[in-house]
Each structure stands twice: as structure tokens, then as C-alpha cells.
Amino acid sequence: MSERHFHPTDATGTEVAERSLTLLLDEAIGGANAPDCADEVLAALASRSSGAPGPRERRWPGLAAAVLVAAALGVVFLLHSSPKADPVPATELRQDRPLPDPVRVYSRADVERLPADTQSVHGTFLPLEAVRALGRLRKLRALDLSVPSRYSIDAKSPPPPKLDAAMVAAIAELRGLEVLRLDRQPGNDLRPLGRLTELRVLSLAGGGADARTLQSLQVLPHLFEIDLRGCRSVDDSAVEALTKFPELRVLRLGMLSWLRPASLCAVLRATRKLEVLDLASVDPRMSAFSRRKAPADAGVDARVVAEIAKLKRLRELDVSNCKRIDDAMLAELAHCTALRRLALGGCDAVTDRGLTALPAELTDLSLDLTAVTGSGLARFPDLVSLGLVHTVQLDPEQVSRFLRGPARRTLHEFRLCSQRPEFARVLDDLPRCTELRVLNLSSNAWMTNAHVGALESLAPRLQRLSLFGVGGV
Predict the structure, then answer these.
(1) Where are the alpha helices (DSSP H) in 77-233?
(2) Max CA-CA distance within the chain?
(3) SS3 465
(4) All structural domains of the chain with their residue ranges
(5) What secondary structure letter does DSSP report for 17?
């Protein structure tokens, strides 16, 4: 996949969101560039926005040079609207202890140099002989062979090793694996993975999973997390195979815009122990991004939300870009008393009224591209993360009032993007937020050097800062 750069100051708010969404969907699905957006899809733009440095970058003198260096070396310049995945709970893994950080390897020689007690390996583009050599690691518990989302094939970069039958068979011999990630690997027959009887976590996002794959995994007694985001071969029959996984705790079906409510409801009725559910962009109006035609009756609707409301353990829910979500459906989620993270980005029928029914204990809330004004934010005194990107009806006074309230002691991450210069008053309240560590103000073209300079007091405590495309940068 090729890198695509644009400068937000040269684009309208809609163009910024469109290009940002295309980048993010391309990452998740993998493969070639995402298709152009039809007019009806532009109305369904996602709740995510990212900034990449444009062909011209201007210096901004407002913050200390140290912040510039930190930004160049370690800042992540993405807006994340969906709830972030927690590390695999130690209690769900064998031996009741967390996995160590993975060791990166690139060849068979690298594998052969690993200590015999290595537990976690990240092997980008490992050839077949290297995967077979992993068999000597008797304590290996986690393997990541995902293709990088930004990878592009050109004359200087050979194609990655194919996930063919021999490669899948070699992986299936690593019987002690608990965590396996094969994101964006276009494998065909993955049925041998059913021999990995210790497997707990399986991620096939953007890969070749299909109904046969899921049926072969039904014999795995410990599997509690499956990631199928952007798998274009996963249809309704494949999803219905998930009804045989009653112990699932984490299920990710994002960007499968063609799935019908009946199959989604069947899965949710069979997986009452779910704690994390990702249904982002499961909506027919997002089919141009998912590159597969979706029937008009597909996607998340009131029936699906009614089943979600019965998930008493649900902690995280992502229904970004599910365009049928409205205030009445949010009222159903009041029954999810354990819910802490909720992504509603792109649900443009959601208003302040819908927020009043949500659990007040929410800690992570994305309201990008919704119709809220901000008056309902006071309901959530424990918010740690808040996204307000292109929320067109947002009232800057309501945002300032929120930042001056309990948020000044709890807010850790804040994302704001608006084309309206009156949001400058919000910047004055940011220094009050003593716990703020992640700040994304990208694409606020009204910002000047003076606005940026006013943020200087935040510099010592910020861990990530994004200012791409602001007027003075």
C-alpha cells in the first residue's frame, strides 16, 4: 500500500474526513488503495480522522524546540475514535501471566539465535523455513505474522512470503500457541489452524478467513477473541458459524458492511459473555469503502442493538458509521451497565438527547461527526478520552464548560477539529486539564501561531501532540 499525503489546509472539512477515512480503511483492510467515494458515502464519513504531513511543512515557533524533536521522533499523528484494545488479560492466558513484548525476527538465522525460552515473536515476512524453525521454541505462546498496513510492493521491496498451504501447515505445528495474528495475510485455506488447541486469541483482520475457517475453529475450547475486520470472504454464513463460540469475550466484525441483522442477532444471542464488540461500518452505506456490495437491508439496526443491550458484561462497543443508530437505540444501551468505552463517530442521527440515556460511568467516548452540541457532556464526569472531530453542531461554550468541570482532573486524551474559529476559546481551557497527555488539534485551519503558543504550558506533560494542518503550523 502506498503512502498518501495531503495537507488539510488545502481541503474542506469533508475532504479532510474523506481522505482520512480512506487511509484508515485502507490500513484495516489492506491491499490496494481504497476506492473513490460516491456522494452517498460522503454523507457517511467515518468518525476517524488522521493527518499526514503535506508536501510543504511550515515551522511553528510557539512551542519549545524539545516538543518539535519529540514530535519528529515519537508522536503518533492519528485520530483514534474507536475504543482501544486492551492487552490480552493475563487470566485468560495459560499460566495466568501476561506475555512479554515480542521479539522481532526477519529470517531463519534470526530465529535460530533466539533463546529457547522465547515466548513471543513478531516475524514480518518470515520465509517458510524460518516459520518451521520456530518449532524449536518450546515455550512459544504468541506469534505475529501480520503484513504491515503501510507496506507497498515496488522494485526495491519483494512481495511477502505467501501464506500458502505449506506455511499454514507449519504454523499449525506450533501447538503451544495462545495468540496468533495473521492480519492482511491473503491466505486461502486456514482450516489447519484448528489444530492449535491452546489458541486463545486469533486475529485475521483484512485476511482470507471464510466460513470454512471458522467452522474448523469450533473445536478450539479456549478461543475467546476473534478479529475478522475487513475480511471480504466473511459472509452471513461465516458469521453464523460464530454461534458455536459461546465463550467469546472479544469479537471484531468492523467494516463487514454486507452482514445482515439476522446473522448478527444470532451471533449476539449465542455469545452472551462478550466484553468487547466492534461493529464499526457494518452499514450498507459504507460498502464503497469495504469494496463489496452490500444489500440495502444489511447492517446494524434496532434488532441488533436490542441484542447488544442484553450483553451484561459488555465494556467496549464500537458502532461508528452505523448510520441507523439514533437516540432511541442509544436508550437501549442503558442496560449495558458495564459499558465504559463507546464509539459513535459518524452516527449523525445521534443528538444530545441520546447521550442522556447512556451509562454515566463512560470513560471513553467518540462523538465525531454526530449531531451533538456538547450540552450532554456533563453527564460523564469520569471521561478519560473524548473525540469531537467535525462535530458540526458543537457549541464551543458547552465544550469549555465541560473542560472546566470534572474533566480538568480526569481527561487524558482530547481530539477536536472544527472549521469554526470561535473554538479558539476552547484552547484557553486546555491548560486546566492537569491529566491531559494526548492532544490532537489537527486540521483546525483557524489556528495561528499565537494559538499554538498559548499551548506552551502543556508541553512538559504532553506525550503526544498533533498539529498538522493548523493555520499557524
Answers:
(1) 108-112, 128-133, 165-172, 211-216
(2) 62
(3) strand
(4) 1-81+350-473
(5) H
Strand ranges inside 347-404, DSSP E: 364-366, 385-389
CA atoms within 13 A on the CB side of 349: 12
CATH 3.80.10 fits 1-81+350-473, yes or no: yes
pLDDT digits (tens, 9 = 90+) for 77-122: 333 333 344 444 444 554 446 889 999 999 999 999 999 999 999 9
Of 401, 409, 309, nearest to 359 by C-alpha is 309
Is the whole-model pTM more than 0.85? no
Q: Is 285 helix (H, G, I), strand (E, B) or coil?
A: helix
| 381-440 tens-digit pLDDT | 999 999 999 999 999 999 999 999 999 999 999 999 999 999 999 999 999 999 999 999
Q: Name, in order, each residue with C-beta under 8 angstroms of 243's C-beta and a sequence gap of 6 or more.
A: 266, 267, 269, 270, 271
Residue 347 cell numbers, joined: 452516527
Backbone angles phi, psi at 90, to 5 degrees: -60, -35
Indicate the pLDDT class of residue 203, thresholds 50, 70 and 90. very high
Cα separation, 60 vs 345, whole angstroms: 30
Round to whole Å and give the CA distance between 179 and 192.
Answer: 15
Q: What is the mean pLDDT of residues 251-258?
A: 96
Rounded CA separation 376/386 (Å): 13
Asked if residue 57 has pLDDT above 60, the reply is: no
Kindly calculate the radius of gyration of the chain based on its CA atoms and give it in whole angstroms.
22
Task: Find out whether 207 and 184 touch, Cβ atoms under 8 Å.
Answer: yes
Over residues 437-461, the mean pLDDT reads 91
> What's the confidence (pLDDT) of residue 470?
86
What are the φ/ψ torsions at residue 331 (nearest 5 degrees)?
-60, -30
273 three-class SS: coil
Label residues 365-402 b or e (16+ Cβ within 10 Å = b). bbbbbbbbbbbbbebbeebbbbbbbbbeebbbebbbbb
Which amino acid is it at 84?
K
Three-class DSSP category at 314: coil
Residue 383 contacts residue 410 (beta carbons within 8 Å): yes
Give long-range contacts, CB 8 A cutoff, 24+ apart: 337-340. 337/312, 337/361, 338/275, 338/312, 338/313, 338/314, 339/314, 339/315, 340/315, 340/316, 340/364
Contact assessment for residue 146 and residue 203, using Cβ atoms and an 8 Å cutoff: yes
Query: Which has more pLDDT, 362 or 59?
Result: 362
Which tops the pLDDT comparison, 72 or 319?
Answer: 319
pLDDT band at residue 43 under the 50/70/90 scheme: very low
Indicate the SS3 state at residue 414. Answer: strand
Alpha helices in 208-314 (DSSP H): 211-216, 236-240, 261-270, 287-290, 302-308
